[in-house]
Each structure stands twice: as C-alpha cells, then as structure tokens.
C-alpha cells in the first residue's frame, strides 16, 4: 500500500460520526495499490480498522464504478454461504469527499496476485482452488427472493444485454481501431446462444486476486470487488476464472499459462469445471467456447475503459492503468482463439 492521495479524512470522520457508532478519526490512512476501478483505502482507527471504497473523481462512464451496488449486494449477502465483509455505511452525497463511497470492515486475510500461489504447500493450493469452486457455487445458489435481490438486475437475455452494454462502453472509451476486437464483437453477435432460463447472482469479476484468504487456513473469508455484479448467467463467472488462468504466468498476467499445475496441486480447467458442476448439480456445460470468448471480450472492454481513464487523468494508479490498457489487443486476439476463429 502507498500513502493516501486526496482522501479528506476529516470529512469522512465528520460524516461517519452520527452514522457509525464508535467510529473515530483515522490515525492512519493507506491507499491500496490494487483496484483500478474504485480507489480503496484502509482506515486505521483507535476503535477498529475499516475499508473505504469510493468512486474515482472526474467524468465517468454511465453505470460504471457503482459503489452503491457493491454496498447493496454485500449487505444483502450477510448471513448467506457467500463470505463478504460487513458493510457499515454508504454515502451517496458527492459533496462529502467529492464522490460516493462506503465503509466496511477491514477483514484480515491474504491476497494472491499470482494464481500459482508461490510459498504455499501443494495441499493448500488444492484446498484454495476447491474453495473457489465452493464459493462460486454459493454465489450462484443464492436465493434471490430471500435476500432481497430478485430485482438486482433484469431477467433473461443476459449475454445479449452484456454484449450490447460492453460494446457501447468499449466504443465510448476507444482510443484506436483494434481489428480483432471488432471481429470478436461480430462473432459474439452472430453466435449468441438462446436464453436457457438460468438466472443467478453473478459476481462479474470472480478471480483469485478478488478473494481474501484466511491468514492461517486455505479458506476464502471474503469476496471483494462486486462492482460488476448483477443478475445473469452463471457460466459467465465460471468462464472468467478459466480465462484468467489462460493468461501469462506470474503477477503481471496473473495466469497459469505454461505452469505445471499438477506439480503445484492446481486442478486443470476440466477438473475445476467438473467440481463446479458437481456442486451445482449440473451434468456439464455445452458451448463453453462462447462463454470463454465472451469473458475475453468483456475484459478487453473493461481494460479499454481503464486505459481511457489513465489518458484522461482519472486513474487510481495511472502507470498500472496504462500497463493494463496495453493488454486490450491481446485479450481480443485470445477471445477469437477461444471462439475457434484465431
């Protein structure tokens, strides 16, 4: 973590005083380097430790950086089988610190930017990936009516809506012509599967580095970064996990390409899909290539937005944002390859 940048801690303390009993002015504030979308801070107070997550400053794309949705969905999931941090208070008044924000517990835990998880035992790696399947199935099994999320998003035609949405977002932040991205969008339009009626809560960015692992056990204690969550098709989350693992190994690509997974105790893609399907009571998944191509497309569109914010001077970490933005053509090419068009 680095020092806080422009967070007005006095304004936060004044706002929280009557809304969060026991909250005191932070004696220490640190800004997390991770998280390109919504700037995130650790607030150390005499009464306890919190996390503040806010929208970035500047002009934002419509429906992006939805901290209000993050707060709402995590509040709704309290008490379910989905591990989330405890939510405390949401501020939708931009006048307090310049943008909307929320406060939640700081959950002790470990994060891994490298899915090979160096330094862990083989058994612990196996257990963590198995827990990834368990938690993903828990997210997709949430009783939407029981937790008040039945209206969290539109029902039906998930991929049609998502392709339209992210194509629009991509065009709004486009900085150059990428032929493979244009071809991928055309392929997704042409190969759109019929609606099969599956509707679930979807996280939208489910991957290892958005999970907190217990400090002393191979167990997920919190799922983070719910900005892209909605009601949709569960296989989008599953494909996103496989997409991430296909990326270059190490902390830069955050993938497992070329890694001897068996030697490290990491399951294959097929084994992970089988584990997930067993937990969901599914016989298998047809047309996985479409879901994978879609996952690459959406990530390319997201990273294009990150690049645009960096160029516009609104990125949380400009240098890292430009590095991520440079990966957009590669994601588009990989999407075509997943579709069998590469």
TrEMBL record:
One of its GO terms (molecular function) is kinase activity. Pfam families: APH. Keywords: Kinase, Transferase. Residues 29-288 form the Aminoglycoside phosphotransferase domain. This is Aminoglycoside phosphotransferase (APT) family kinase protein. It comes from Silicimonas algicola. The lineage of its organism: Bacteria, Pseudomonadati, Pseudomonadota, Alphaproteobacteria, Rhodobacterales.
């Amino acid at each position: 973590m680095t020092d806080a940048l422009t967070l007005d801690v006095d304004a936060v303390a004044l706002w929280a005083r009557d809304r969060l009993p026991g909250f005191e002015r932070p004696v220490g504030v640190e800004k997390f380097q991770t998280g390109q979308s919504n700037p995130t801070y650790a607030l150390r107070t005499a009464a306890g430790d919190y996390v503040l997550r806010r929208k970035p400053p500047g002009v934002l794309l419509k429906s992006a950086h939805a901290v209000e949705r993050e707060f709402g969905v995590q509040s709704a999931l309290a008490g379910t089988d989905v591990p989330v941090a405890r939510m405390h208070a949401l501020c939708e008044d931009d006048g307090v610190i310049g943008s909307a924000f929320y406060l939640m517990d700081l959950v002790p835990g470990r994060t891994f930017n490298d899915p090979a998880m160096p330094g862990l035992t083989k058994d612990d790696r196996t257990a963590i990936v198995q827990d990834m399947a368990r938690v993903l199935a828990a997210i997709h099994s949430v009783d939407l009516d029981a937790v008040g999320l039945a209206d969290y998003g539109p029902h039906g035609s998930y991929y049609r809506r998502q392709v339209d949405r992210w194509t629009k977002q991509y065009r709004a932040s486009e900085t150059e012509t990428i032929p493979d991205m244009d071809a991928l969008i055309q392929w997704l339009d042409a190969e759109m599967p019929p609606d099969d009626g599956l509707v679930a809560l979807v996280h939208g960015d489910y991957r290892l580095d958005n999970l907190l692992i217990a400090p002393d056990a191979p167990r997920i204690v919190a799922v983070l970064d719910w900005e892209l969550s909605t009601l949709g098709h569960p296989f989008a989350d599953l494909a996103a996990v496989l997409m991430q693992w296909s990326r270059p190994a190490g902390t830069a690509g955050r993938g497992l390409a070329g890694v001897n997974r068996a030697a490290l105790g990491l399951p294959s893609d097929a084994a992970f899909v089988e584990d997930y399907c067993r937990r969901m009571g599914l016989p298998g998944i047809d047309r996985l290539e479409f879901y994978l191509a879609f996952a690459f497309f959406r990530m390319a569109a997201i990273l294009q937005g990150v690049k645009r914010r960096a160029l516009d001077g609104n990125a949380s970490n400009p240098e890292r944002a430009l590095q991520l933005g440079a990966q957009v053509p590669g994601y588009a090419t990989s999407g075509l390859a997943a579709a069998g068009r590469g």
